[in-house]
Amino acid sequence: MDIHNTTEDTVFKVAQTIFNDIKKEGNPDGFCLCDQCRMDTICYTLNRLEPCYIVSNRGITRIEQDGIQRQQEEADIATLVYKGLRLVNHFQRPTAPHNAFAAPEAGPAKPAFDIPTIIGRLFDGVTFSPLSGATVSLRRDGELVAMRNFNWQNPYTLISNTPGTYTFWPAPVSAEIADIHKTFEYSLKIECPDYDPLVHSFKIPAVSKIQTVSSYSLDRTFKLPDLYLFPPGEAEQNG
Ligand SMILES: [Zn+2]
Asked: For the ranges 48-52, 99-103, 207-211, which has the lowest average pLDDT?
């Protein structure tokens, strides 16, 4: 069974349209539109909307029928995206160079596994409020995973303008040839003052392909289940 949050699709679509429109208009407000600021803006927006879960195919028909309601929803989301973009730009991450684009490596195109962006949320297991100040590290085979570019940090420390949310964008992993199917196993370690640390393991399937400029996209995301941290002594099983 495939469960899907359609709010994410709408937010990604609306946000990408807005980012593209801003660029087309010559970016009069001078927003930073680097990958990290884009993802921070998307996270800000997602954190302020109700998720809408569906079981794969059935929901898509339903969504297409609600045309007028959807227009209103998209207008509300656009307002949130603009608000998020302003806030994210105002409190820019000091450690990121905010390069406008993650330029693909120069030279001949090589086959590689394109790993999607990874998004997850962290909550206090007792109060259910989003956590801030937690540090999340992403490892594969015991090593910290290299990120796509310097805009992305690993370990990542949760920041206050997108409470509870962390994002990663691993660098592509080179492959011998295209069309190899491979499963990448990751482990996430979450450390937060006053909470028991938590380790969460997960797998991402990927297919190697020749990297091109057009394969560069923030549209693909891998959403992790919400994780809950508990103060020492109150440890329970995370679902
Ligand atoms: Zn930026």
From this structure: 99-103
Q: State in Å: Cα 110 to ligand 1 middle.
A: 28
pTM of the model: 0.71
Contact 218, 39 (CB under 8 A): yes
Whether pLDDT at 174 is above 50:
yes
Q: For residue 37, how far is its CA from the centre of ligand 1 (angstroms)?
A: 4
pLDDT number for residue 212: 56
CATH 3.30.70.100 fits 111-229, yes or no: no
CA of 207 to the centre of ligand 1 (A): 29
> Ligand 1 centre from 39 Cα, in Å?
9
Which residue has better confidence, 21 or 91? 21
Preceding amide of 155 cis, omega within 30:
yes
Q: Roughly what angle, to the nearest 10 degrees, separates helices 56-65 and 67-90?
A: 100
Ligand 1 centre distance from Cα of residue 225 (Å): 27
Q: How far is CA 12 from CA 39, 43, 113, in A?
A: 9, 10, 22
| Nearest Cα residue to 50 out of 29, 33, 73, 79 | 73
How far apart are the C-alpha atoms of 115 and 234, rounded to whole Å?
A: 35
